[in-house]
Design a protein that fits this description.
Blueprint (H helix, E strand, L loop, with lengths): L1 H19 L8 H5 L7 E2 L28 H8 L18 H13 L13 E2 L20 E5 L2 E2 L2 E2 L1 H13 L1 H4 L1 E6 L2 E4 L7 E4 L8 E6 L1 H4 L43 E2 L8 E2 L2 E2 L1 E3 L9 E4 L1 E2 L12 E5 L8 E5 L14 E7 L11 E7 L3
Parallel strand pairs: 1-8
Antiparallel strand pairs: 2-3, 3-9, 4-5, 6-7, 6-9, 7-8, 10-14, 11-12, 13-14, 15-17, 16-17, 18-19
Helix pairs in contact: 3-5
Length: about 375
């Protein structure tokens, strides 16, 4: 009986503080999950508090102008179920393969919507940090959260651009593995009751980017989208270009013994596993030849293989990416960066990330112009 009374007093206190707008909103997802399902708004949640730098509070009155999920998109989303998976307690050291592949796909599929002038060419993923105003990790710290930047119009959300991205993500949420997204003061979740979308009252209105969170299966590229099924072409009803190739779709491997630094056309060409994760094909620099290079995420160190050039961990920012990337050092095994073609030897600093590695530099093979 006493515990019930305390719980009621605590709930009343929260309501009183929220009414004044003088305290941080709940920073734990469990507080949202246990909220009244009939409520028409959601305060800052695990993924939302860490978004952007604005400290301006979005009050409840602003909910009236938020992005409204179209009826047909909402109906499609209501039939999906992707359970929410939080961040856990430890940073993972870099972006996941699935997040990188999805970010690359969105940039290619929505060339007129993504604001490529922003760092990361409009796609930002990994950040080892807590949610702003809380003491638990952001999903960005797992490498499973993607910020897709959209140009603004007079400081307001450009719904003509951002809505198309958000709508497509909801329509393909189960195929991709989208567990949550936030856009223009609206939060949408692929689990729970209906409607799935509610007013988002976090400290940043998300008017300049769509915040997307993917499941652990999607992060590991184990959902249909990453295995050749890219779903409906983005904005098909609006008549854009055909949907680009699905991230996992390709023909025969270029090199069945591929390793870090070897040429690739898709992730299927980098069919190797390491303690740092699965090999993947880096194509963010959009090479005219269509050839990228095999890599894995890193923080401080990279794995090596006998008979292949020694590897080195560099900052992905050198190539418009996030976190660390394993590349090959210039060596005889790769003809000092002349194999594959389109690469050049560049002096680079080691990406340390959250590791205990020491600072170092090395001559590595990077795409020409990278």
């Amino acid at each position: 009986m006493r515990s019930n009374t305390l719980a009621q007093l605590f709930a009343a206190a929260l309501l009183s503080v929220a009414a004044t707008g003088c305290a941080d909103a709940p920073a734990d997802l469990s507080e949202i999950e246990s909220a009244d399902p009939s409520a028409d708004s959601v305060s800052d949640d695990e993924s939302g508090l860490d978004e952007g730098d604005s400290s301006e509070f979005v009050d409840k009155a602003s909910c009236g102008g938020r992005w409204q999920v179209p009826g047909d998109v909402s109906d499609a989303g209501d039939g999906m179920s992707v359970p929410y998976q939080g961040a856990g307690r430890r940073c993972q050291g870099g972006p996941t393969s699935g997040a990188e592949a999805l970010g690359r796909y969105i940039r290619s599929a929505f060339p007129g919507e993504v604001n490529t002038s922003v760092d990361g060419r409009g796609i930002q993923i990994y950040a080892c940090r807590n949610i702003r105003g809380g003491n638990s990790l952001s999903v960005h710290a797992t490498g499973r959260a993607i910020d897709v930047f959209i140009p603004t119009r007079g400081g307001a959300a450009d719904n003509g651009k951002g809505d198309r991205v958000a709508n497509w993500l909801i329509e393909n949420a189960d195929r991709i593995g989208i567990q949550m997204l936030i856009w223009d003061r609206t939060i949408w979740k692929a689990s729970g009751g209906t409607p799935r979308d509610r007013c988002y009252q976090g400290s940043h209105p998300h008017n300049d980017h769509v915040h997307v969170e993917i499941s652990e299966d999607a992060a590991d590229m184990n959902t249909p989208f990453f295995n050749g099924d890219s779903g409906a072409a983005p904005g098909a009803s609006d008549g854009p270009a055909d949907s680009p190739q699905a991230p996992g779709d390709s023909g025969s491997p270029l090199n069945r013994n591929a390793w870090v630094g070897d040429a690739c056309r898709s992730n299927n060409d980098c069919a190797f596993s390491t303690d740092a994760g699965e090999g993947r094909c880096f194509l963010d620099h959009e090479p005219s030849s269509g050839l990228g290079f095999c890599t894995v995420s890193c923080a401080g160190y990279c794995p090596d293989r006998s008979g292949k050039a020694v590897t080195f961990c560099v900052g992905g920012s050198m190539l418009g990416a996030n976190g660390g990337l394993c590349v090959s050092k210039a060596a005889g095994a790769n003809d000092y960066c002349s194999s594959p073609g389109g690469f050049t030897a560049v002096e680079a600093e080691r990406y340390i990330g959250g590791s205990s590695a020491r600072s170092a530099t090395a001559e590595v093979c990077l795409p020409s112009g990278g």
